[in-house]
Amino acid sequence: MTDICLDMNEYRVNLRVAAIVRRGEDVLLCRPPGHDWWFLPGGRIKVNEDSLTAVRRELTEEIGSGFEVRKPTAIVENFFDLEERRFHEICTVYEVTWHGGLIAATVDDVQEEFDWFSLAELRDVVLKPDLIKQRILNPQTELELIVNRENK
């Protein structure tokens, strides 16, 4: 299946899923090698794939099968620039509980680095988009719409 990723005008449009993976008071983040910023694990939704199936597939590929998807917690409309490209991304974020042991990718092409951060450490982490920190630190019962505009 093909990822939902379209180049339109000067933008790359992504349909994505992400997960706030919790292990007690810690949260799992990932980053591209060599970068100083972090983001939530996840990836692009494929054509004809619903977001719940996508988050389960992406997490299994990236970290293994020791997790439980609990509920969607936020929809993030994210506008940003990365590597000289403008992005318009729509991302469904899920609350996830980790029950497994070590993080272990199940596919060979996972290139991100993963690490656990305490909620206290999270305050000093460069997280993209930064607005998602509040959702991590203060979980809510209702689904929230978050609009993040880093580019104008």
UniProtKB/TrEMBL annotation:
<dbReference type="GO" id="GO:0016787">
    <property type="term" value="F:hydrolase activity"/>
</dbReference>
<dbReference type="InterPro" id="IPR015797">
    <property type="entry name" value="NUDIX_hydrolase-like_dom_sf"/>
</dbReference>
<dbReference type="InterPro" id="IPR000086">
    <property type="entry name" value="NUDIX_hydrolase_dom"/>
</dbReference>
<dbReference type="Pfam" id="PF00293">
    <property type="entry name" value="NUDIX"/>
</dbReference>
<dbReference type="InterPro" id="IPR020084">
    <property type="entry name" value="NUDIX_hydrolase_CS"/>
</dbReference>
<keyword id="KW-0378">Hydrolase</keyword>
<feature type="domain" description="Nudix hydrolase">
    <location>
        <begin position="10"/>
        <end position="139"/>
    </location>
</feature>
<protein>
    <recommendedName>
        <fullName>Nudix hydrolase domain-containing protein</fullName>
    </recommendedName>
</protein>
